[in-house]
Amino acid sequence: MFRRAARFRRGGALDALSDRAQGALRLLWRRCAAIWRPDRRGAASGAIPDISADPYRLSSLDPPSWRGRLHAAMVPPAAAGGAWLVAATPGTANRAVVALYATSVLAMFAVSAVFHLRRWDDAGWLRMRRWDHTLIFALIAASYGAIMGLGVPGWPRTWLVGAAVTLCGAGIAVRWLLLHPPFRLMTMLFVATGGVSLIAIVPILRGLGRLGTAVVLGGCAVYFLGALALGLRRPNPWPGRFGYHEVWHLNVVVAVGCQYWVVAAVVVPAL
Asked: For residues 139 and 185, what is the distance between their CA atoms, to the nearest angstrom?
């Protein structure tokens, strides 16, 4: 009798746990399904958050004349350089990793250019900002795959790529599950994913050499300084032409150039 009672209690607890899990999954499904039409959902139910005081939204309404031009100018070189880089990479698996990296660079610049060159309503701005941040995370993950995955020997490369992909996946999930996540949260995720490489500096030195490691770390530092300028909205040299956001875009171009050089001049020739 006692065994039956114990089994009954365990069965009831499992049923309750199953009901809670199903409820959580249903809620997650509704949140995921709702994000695909933020413009219609917001217009009908007021779900679009009030972003009238968001400084980045306000900047997008009357942007400096250079807003988006730097990244638009990088689209043709990214396409041509990516095709050359893939063709120069030996081995099918290696070529696939480099192709993913080159595609992420091209996609990031292209989507950023479309986002910043066009004027959007609130719903469109939020939607494009999601894609903009998503492709930044995708570029970070693909950069780890190309540089660390192909250039660093032994188990550290598995750890580095795995940690970067996990953090980038978390960042993308947060960006799509929350319509307007806190800026500080997104900044911390960007910095955390970029800073993973500092934990395994010795294996990176062995794989990339002093020059390659210095250029990679230099690119990370340029990214960090750009993110700092974006967060502080300083420096803001010529607000009507070239403001703090353009400083961030310039830093992105320089940092991507550093990492591209490492892939092309250090990683691929050693394969």
From this structure: 19
